[in-house]
Amino acid sequence: MKFVEGIVAQPQSLLASAENVRRSLGAVRPLESGALVALIGIGASEHVSRSAAAAWRALGVRAVAVSAAELQGSELALADVYVAMSESGRSAETVAALRGAPGRRVGITNDPDAPLGAVVDEVIPLGSGPDSPIYTTGYTATLQAIGLLGEHWGGTSSDWAVLPEQVAQVTEQSSKVVAALADTFEQARIIDVVASGTSSATAGEGALMMRESARLHTGSHETFNYLHGPMEAVDAQAASIVIGSGRELRLAQELAGLGCPTLLITTSHEIEDADHLTVVRLPKPPSALACAVLEILPLQLLAAEVVSMRGLRADGFRYHQDDIKLDGR
Length: 329
What we know:
Helix content: 40-55%
Number of helices: 11
Number of domains: 2
Radius of gyration: 19 Å
Strand order of the largest sheet: 2-1-3-4-5
Distance between the termini: 17 Å
Shape: globular
Strand content: 15-25%
Order of helices and strands: HEHEHEHEHEHHEHEHEHEEH
CATH architecture of the largest domain: 3-Layer(aba) Sandwich
Largest sheet: 5 strands, parallel
């Protein structure tokens, strides 16, 4: 599946995956009272874990996010339950982290027969279908699955059924907006992607995905850390993408005031387009992690525009690493 095809396929992919995940959750045991959950991943999945931990804590689930790279070969009892995410099920670091983890182990993957399935106690198959080499459907399906699992353990529920329609709506409405920005962002010497809380996944994955696909020079920043120094490098030759509806609103205005082309992705109605500031307004999502699904869409579309402008293929890594997937592919 090509990158653009993956973007367009996400409404149907999410619909199919939600049905599959809900069926699987019926066999997933409840959490023991007070259990600490470590959310594990690398790459896009590690970014999901950052947002998921924040969202789960808001539901009353004790959760922390830890990079799989930090846990390779460790047998320290870091948590009571480990939840590992790997769309392919072949991420070497994630499998290594789970292999030595003492405690209950749950895996979320699009391929339950892959190596991750052999080192966990319970598997939740995404069932999201084919993915593009630069992840699209697998990324958003993982966000949805981790959201559904958190609600399963937290004893709550959201109307995830509205999400595919919202994804189609945001994709259609933001496509022209980001197309108008593509030339400016393509020429920027660096693009800062900034968010906090449950939007952290969007900053991390957005910066990663734009580097992988369009080979843009990007940096990912947590909002409040950004205010403590990294923002000092910003000028009119840079560009910024700010995601959120808290301190991010003022930040977006400040960046635009410096002459820095800024894209704000928000659910807020408190701010409008201005000089150097473009606003993509999202519909009210059913949950915080559903919002993270919507937030990544304008960034995917922007990356696709720059990919086209630069004549790139966006069909995988240029620099092949033979030790990051367990079968060497």
